[in-house]
From TrEMBL:
Species in which this protein is naturally found: Trypanosoma brucei brucei (strain 927/4 GUTat10.1)
The protein's enzyme class: transferase
Keyword Transmembrane helix: yes
The EC number(s) this enzyme carries: 2.3.1.225
Keywords, in A-Z order: Acyltransferase, Membrane, Transferase, Transmembrane, Transmembrane helix
Protein name, entry field: Palmitoyltransferase
A cellular component term, taken from the record's GO annotations: membrane
Subcellular location: Membrane
GO biological process: protein palmitoylation; protein targeting to membrane
Amino acid sequence: MESFGPLAVVSATILSVIAVFYIGIMGPSRYHRNGVVGWLYRGMVKLPHACVSCCCCRSGTSGGLFSCFMKTRCGRCFHYLMNERHWGLVILYIILVWPVEIAYLALVAMRLKASLLSKMVSWGLVLFSEVVYFAAVFSDPGTVTSRSEKDAQKRAFATAGGAKPQMKKGHEATRKGEERMQYRKFLLSPRAEEEQGQRYVVDGILYGKDSTRGCGVECPTCNVPRPSRSKHCRMCNRCVRRYDHHCPWINNDVAEGNHRWFLLFLLIHIIECIWGLWDLYTMVVQFLTAQGLWVSAIRFANGYTYRITNIHRLFAIATMHPLVLFLIIFAAPITVVLAVFWLQQMSFVVSNVTINDMNKIDTTIDFITTLPTATDVYEEAQNVRSVLENVAARPPRRLRALKRPSAEAIVVGSKKDKAYRKEVSKMLMSDLKGLFNRGVWNNLKEVMFPYS
């Protein structure tokens, strides 16, 4: 039992960090937003604001106007941090991760008794992970050119070969908004963007369809028809093609243009953490072996045997190499959380769905399965099937087997009624996920080579 204590402390610390990271990343996801994890996430997000409000209320009698001013200021600051686009988490990433990576390279990788190739791999993983990170941060996610920027886009690609034309000073825009558009880098020419916007069919189920023009509904902010699978990001104030989600850690949308870099960023960081943990484990073994602690017991010349426990090993590591222990506690939970998120992302990629797609699928299923009667559910599900037969990349399979509800299922609230709605929900989920599914290989190519 004496060896259980320190291991329990370290394990509890790692598990606690994993839990906090998991709640912070996965809390707002479709899997948890209506459950305990989602409830904890909302509480964690509201906690700073609640603490500020509590402190201001306590000092309200003595602080007077000052406490009200501070409460208002803190509220605005909290709203900005949670609801506006800013570089805060990118800076926090640099402050948290870079010193850890530098410490790992300078104090672990360089001192480790390992081959030159092993050390080169350590350096390569760290450097490549940051290159991929900034590629995700600064890549154009697939911005849809707004109506106000159409003329600037045409001028940018007016010359042969797509080179930007030289503009005389007298022709430069005078208004600030127009000046900003002159220097914006457009990823695609007007024709190429139009072709890219037609890559996915506007189904009219998940993504609204303008019946008069046969294209997506017009975005009220950008004043252009939205391509299928696009979304207007309120934080970035732009429409983005094949929108997945907005990631504050890269201060950018994860979408058509940079989804590959985001996935690679997660994967390389996972590999980097696993490689680093192996280096740390090797260093711990080398240290304990040198100190004579990598044994179960020490036998002295007089025959006395002293048993070596995990307490002794952990105390030796914490005393002589506290940085190593810190790096293990830092890297282990991050590896688990990133791996879970990467696996979730890849499960979507191989099916050619995005987080935004899944949210819309959930909304559609909730609408259909909560209709007044099972007969209404059946008829609406058949309408969905009829549309999918014409537009889905993978024709519906499950809905073809859907039968009319039985007499028992027609009774609202009965067990048969609930079971029927649940079965329809599963069928809709399966077939709606096939709307853009062109097969695993083609789905991977769409993400990794979006403009090929």
